[in-house]
Amino acid sequence: MPPKQILTNTEIKLSIPMHLGGERLDIALQQMLPQHSRSRLQTWIKAGLVSMDAAVVTAKTKVWGGERVIVMPPQNAQENAFKPENIPLDIIFEDDTILVLNKPAGLVVHPAAGNWSGTLLNALLHHTPQLADVPRAGIVHRLDKDTSGLLVVAKTLEAQTSLVRQLQARTVKREYRAIVWGQLWRNGTINQPIGRHSHARTKMAISRTGKPAITHYEVLERFGVHTYLRCQLETGRTHQIRVHMQFLKAPMLGDPVYGIGNIIPHKMMTQTLRDAVTSFNRQALHAVKLGLIHPTTNEAMEWQIELADDMKVLLEAMRHENPPTDEPFEFAYEEGDYYEGEADDDEYLDDDLEED
């Protein structure tokens, strides 16, 4: 029969039985804690999570029986997924029903593999503890980790249902600012379905069998090798604007997934602009405007914020460049640079939780 374990929080307190005298510590622990593999126990010992008689030990330390051992198993990362964390929020509007915030670049919205803590969801649970009773802590739509800007959160189940229905009915107004490579000379609409990339499962792609996706874009400023755009969404597919801009052969500046890779026209930029572009370490996309019907009052509401500071700096560097030439600048893309996806039955996100 295994020895009795005394649990204090995450501590496991053990006493080495006499019959294990002469064994290595890792072997003794494996027999005492059969639910854990020997390699896992060795990792914990190496990380300093195991002490014996208050002394630091190694896996090869001999035991003689009677020693007091304390094991501190690390928490499973997923256990932190729905725990409150004191993360600052830039709140634009809040009442008893909804909360509108300005999400900074770098903040993950919802816990997932690789990001089980430090997310917007964790911050929301700290700010409004009752969100623990609302699915997904009230989150109804997402922004990519490195996209900044406006995002609405429902504080009640009724509000969440209303906002999800508005998203499904395409009545939520969402407007973005984007900086892309190349010169776009006309306003337009991209109506291309988007589905999961059949080879790179974390990517999306234009797909004949994908979900409908519509992005309207308007040229605000045109520079030597870049264009500043206003983008409005009718739908909210995962990575929609980024995939559509790639399809337009005007990929998002700073986009590590759908960008231009090493095809950068250094000779066509001043050193100042090259430095600004090189130091910009995210996709140049910012959700600047959000409009919806308030779930309780039925009032039409709209919020608009300023452009993110890092994008302001980038635009200022571009405005000091020479004006665009008469001939549009285009990248020398080869046939097949853009992937057209195949049939894909599973979806990256649930239908009622869209990501821009």
Reported for the largest beta sheet, the result is: 9 strands, mixed
* Tally of DSSP helical segments: 7
User: Based on CA inertia axes, which overall geometry fits?
Assistant: elongated
The fraction of residues assigned to DSSP E strands is 25-35%
The tally of beta strands, per DSSP, is: 19
State the share of residues found in helices, binned by percent.
Answer: 10-25%
Query: Low-confidence segments, ≥5 residues, pLDDT <50?
Result: 1-9, 332-354
Mean pLDDT: 85
Characterise this structure.
With 356 residues, the chain is α+β, with helices and mostly antiparallel strands. It is built from 7 helices and 19 strands. Strands 6, 7, 9, 10, 11, 14, 15, 16 and 17 form a 9-stranded mixed beta sheet that branches. The protein has a 5-stranded antiparallel beta sheet with strand order 1-2-5-3-4. Strand 16 and strand 17 form a beta hairpin. The protein is elongated and about 80 Å long. The N terminus and C terminus are likely disordered.
Helix and strand arrangement:
Blueprint: E1 6-8, E2 11-15, H1 25-32, H2 38-46, E3 50-52, E4 55-56, E5 68-71, E6 91-94, E7 98-103, H3 120-127, E8 141-142, E9 148-154, H4 157-168, E10 173-181, E11 188-191, E12 194-196, E13 204-207, E14 214-222, E15 226-233, H5 240-247, H6 271-279, E16 285-293, E17 300-304, H7 309-319, E18 340-341, E19 354-355
Parallel strand pairs: 8-19, 9-16, 13-18
Antiparallel strand pairs: 1-2, 2-5, 3-4, 3-5, 6-7, 7-9, 10-15, 10-16, 11-14, 12-13, 14-15, 16-17
